[in-house]
């Protein structure tokens, strides 16, 4: 038995979809929104990803529109329309580079390749290969990518780190930008295994002379972590949402990134490892509090840190405080000199006035002591992304 197509699916309402696609291909109902991509080292916008937005009906996401076009054999025509809009935007001014999504199999289509290359040099254009449909001919795809590069364009690959197939494709294509999969970025600040995975992908990106880009960064915690890891390019709601026209980086976000960068200038002491922490005064209502919360006494000095043991029981561990200029190995030695039950409790970092700057996780201290020379993922050559 074949299930009926659902409303909104690419196969539902054939006449409606046919009319909608015809309208867009003919030149109406499509615009490109621009989402900023941030250069972490400069705390400024390096470029934008251009994202297709369709005016309904049907009122569906871009993925559904492209699936509908692919179902009807019109995905090449739709991509040609997107590339025409790309060139129109470039003609009226383009701050930094811009990326545009193209499915690999469509680069083998003569009309798509002509639409991409026929408008002149591609300086500042990054062709981002999506993985909805694989290219059937690797040699033909390589030739198309060579043509893009010969015209001055760059190549990006998304969803890096998601499996062997993606890894093999990365090694063969040797992209200029490697985009971390959102699954590795989500909750990165809370998951040491994900941090290790990001480092590994970053090291591989450095070996093939590519920039690493973390997309889907949605929280300040994730943003702080990618900065801490040295990921050179960041994209996501934490730094800017898609909008009509080119963006300007929010001053508060710029200051946040600059502050995180400033911490990294002190690799020989623990200030580079300080993580944000919730702080509660002695007069605050009784918990529950999140793990890592710093509790203050009546004079505003740290007295305890909240931890949760493997059984899920919350404890208040007496606060061990250190200065931001302390050496990581010395702080680790002091932390491990505590009773064994307290070894994993965060250490509180305070300034000269006793004001809490944040906490130091034991895992970060161990990593810094064990790998003192380890740097973040290689950013490649910055000049290659300049316009």
From TrEMBL:
<dbReference type="Pfam" id="PF00563">
    <property type="entry name" value="EAL"/>
</dbReference>
<dbReference type="InterPro" id="IPR035919">
    <property type="entry name" value="EAL_sf"/>
</dbReference>
<dbReference type="InterPro" id="IPR050706">
    <property type="entry name" value="Cyclic-di-GMP_PDE-like"/>
</dbReference>
<dbReference type="InterPro" id="IPR001633">
    <property type="entry name" value="EAL_dom"/>
</dbReference>
<dbReference type="InterPro" id="IPR000644">
    <property type="entry name" value="CBS_dom"/>
</dbReference>
<feature type="domain" description="CBS">
    <location>
        <begin position="313"/>
        <end position="378"/>
    </location>
</feature>
<protein>
    <submittedName>
        <fullName>EAL domain-containing protein</fullName>
    </submittedName>
</protein>
<feature type="domain" description="EAL">
    <location>
        <begin position="14"/>
        <end position="256"/>
    </location>
</feature>
<dbReference type="GO" id="GO:0071111">
    <property type="term" value="F:cyclic-guanylate-specific phosphodiesterase activity"/>
</dbReference>
<keyword id="KW-0129">CBS domain</keyword>
